[in-house]
Design a protein that fits this description.
Elements: H1 12-30, H2 33-53, E1 55-60, E2 65-70, H3 72-75, H4 77-98, H5 106-129, H6 141-149, H7 152-167, H8 170-184, H9 202-226
Antiparallel strand pairs: 1-2
Helix pairs in contact: 2-4, 2-9, 4-5, 5-7, 7-8, 8-9
Transmembrane segments: 32-55, 75-93, 105-129, 141-163, 170-193, 205-223
Keywords: Membrane, Transmembrane, Transmembrane helix
Length: 227
């Protein structure tokens, strides 16, 4: 038995096919998709007690005008996401080097850090603006979608789109589109928390974390089958 490649006999098409096949194998070997999703799932679940404890809900009068502030988003999510992207980048680099390959994870990490800074700035601006400009009417639907998009769970999905492009990973692209649908619409599968309004965010955040965790398990199993 030998591991040497079979000569292509000077056939340009066969040479091109073998080169493309080798490039695809290298891209697949560079992927540690399951680890990225696992870290993001862990960050989402760990953030639940922070979001719950630091949530402020204050209504005046007959309850038609309320101030709702998820301060945990500012206290927990920025440092947590920065550490998560750093951990993901380190893991990708170490795995790639152990396989004698290069890693293309840096653009993903930079995108994640940039989005984290942008969502933090947007939430700080909203926190400064809204208390002095209360609204009694509900916000339009497009504004709610935009709010979810620049929230931590939304930026996680946007950054994953970059990772899918870097890896040329169709499976991750499909997964990310599904995750963004669940996070932005949002799709709560009919689960509503009965009781205090301060717990209303729990079903959606638990579902977001569960989707990421299931994705991590799925990509890990797929990687084992390939090996």
């Amino acid at each position: 038995m030998t591991t040497d490649s079979v000569p292509a006999g000077g056939d340009p098409r066969r040479l091109l096919s073998e080169a493309r096949g080798l490039a695809r194998r290298v891209r697949v070997d560079q992927r540690v998709t399951w680890f990225a999703l696992l870290v993001l799932a862990a960050v989402t679940f760990v953030g639940i007690p922070f979001d719950w404890y630091f949530l402020v809900l204050h209504c005046v009068g007959d309850g038609t005008v309320c101030q709702f502030s998820r301060q945990g988003v500012l206290y927990y999510w920025p440092p947590a996401l920065l550490l998560a992207y750093a951990a993901i980048a380190v893991c990708y680099v170490r795995v790639a080097r152990s396989r004698g390959l290069g890693a293309r994870v840096l653009p993903y990490a930079i995108t994640g850090v940039t989005l984290t800074v942008l969502f933090t700035a947007a939430w700080v601006a909203a926190r400064l603006y809204l208390p002095s400009h209360p609204r009694q009417d509900p916000f339009p639907y497009w504004m709610l979608v935009l709010d979810r998009l620049i929230a931590p769970w939304g930026t996680i999905g946007v950054a994953l789109l970059v990772l899918a492009r870097l890896e040329r990973n169709v499976g991750l692209l499909v997964f990310t589109l599904g995750y963004l649908t669940v996070a932005l619409v949002p799709i709560d599968f009919g689960w509503h928390w009965q009781g205090q309004d301060s717990k209303a965010f729990l079903p959606q955040q638990i579902i977001n974390g569960t989707v990421l965790l299931l994705g991590a398990i799925g990509f890990w199993l797929a990687g084992r089958r390939r090996r």
